[in-house]
Specification:
By secondary structure, this protein is α/β, with parallel strands linked by helices. Helix content is about 55%, strand content about 15%. The N terminus is likely disordered.
């Protein structure tokens, strides 16, 4: 296998808030980047920087050394990779496929097997760190697949993140991301519950936050997410609808192992309740509204 320094041509599929920033780092690093997105306008900033537009995922995959994707849902991943005129039908033998979407471990394993049959190297590499991590190239990237494929693309991944971890065989990256979202669910709900109780008990909520966020109860979710609700800011760093998708993947992953996860299921139910009220495009901190409605 060739090392990362010999990979020059990259097809990048999915140029939303995350993908646009990530592809931008690759352009800035000197890679030749071709892009595809369902809404072309979302790729305009990349095209102005020299990226090449492609009309289909297949066109974006053809002749590339590496094809990277970061899209919305597992169904989008399946369509892009396995659909008509998709990535697997057009990628060259020896190419590397890196799906960075938070998706299904089972789908990642399916893509890996089908790619391997064609002499193509597939990795599942979901990310954590949100919009700011994408913009600052400080993402954590959780990788599943063959170790030699991981070694080959790691220099490229380091253009987009700082914490690049090989998690194991195909699907292991997605399973690790499920662990991440399972942990977030409990931490976010706990922070929202605590702050809602502080308000209901007649305390100065800001003072409570200042006190407990610096101690054993402190967490990233409290200090960087739930805190926004105190300011009435529900702009998304991470949309509730995407968190719901991630939690559903976590529930399915647990079910596949025969594991019941009551906390995750409870937070998922709460989030779906809020989504049904039209809040699905708000940030995940809007979970606090569930507790405000029920205290």
């Amino acid at each position: 296998m060739s090392g990362g320094i010999h990979m020059k041509k990259i097809g990048f599929i999915g140029t939303g808030i995350m993908g646009s920033a990530m592809a931008g780092h690759l352009l800035n690093a000197g890679y030749e980047v071709s892009v595809y997105n369902r809404t072309k306008a979302k790729a305009d900033s990349l095209l102005q920087k020299g990226a090449v537009w492609c009309n289909t995922p297949g066109q974006c995959a053809k002749g590339q050394d590496v094809i990277i994707s970061i899209v919305g849902y597992p169904k989008d991943v399946e369509e892009i990779y396995l659909g008509k005129n998709g990535v697997l039908d057009n990628a060259s033998e020896g190419a590397y496929l890196i799906d960075m979407t938070t998706s299904s471990p089972q789908l990642a394993q399916k893509i890996y097997r089908m790619a391997k049959d064609k002499g193509i190297f597939a990795l599942d590499a979901p990310v954590t760190g949100g919009d700011s991590g994408a913009q600052n190239a400080s993402l954590s990237i959780l990788v599943g697949g063959d170790t030699d494929a991981f070694t080959a693309v790691k220099p490229l991944l380091l253009k987009m993140g700082t914490n690049i971890v090989y998690e194991g065989t195909a699907g292991a990256g997605q399973k690790t991301k499920a662990c991440n979202q399972i942990a977030i669910a409990g931490a976010l709900a706990g922070a929202c519950e605590a702050l809602s109780y502080a308000k209901a008990a007649g305390l100065d909520v800001q003072k409570v936050f200042d006190a407990i966020s610096q101690g054993a109860a402190g967490s990233f979710q409290m200090s960087h997410v739930a805190v926004n609700a105190l300011k009435g800011n529900y702009q998304p760093g991470f949309m509730l609808k995407h968190f719901i998708k991630d939690m559903k993947i976590g529930v399915q992953a647990g079910d596949s192992c025969g594991l019941n996860m009551p906390i995750l299921k409870q937070v998922l139910q709460q989030a779906e309740n809020l989504a049904a009220k039209g809040l699905e495009q708000e940030g995940t901190q809007c979970l606090i509204k569930y507790y405000q409605d029920n205290f």
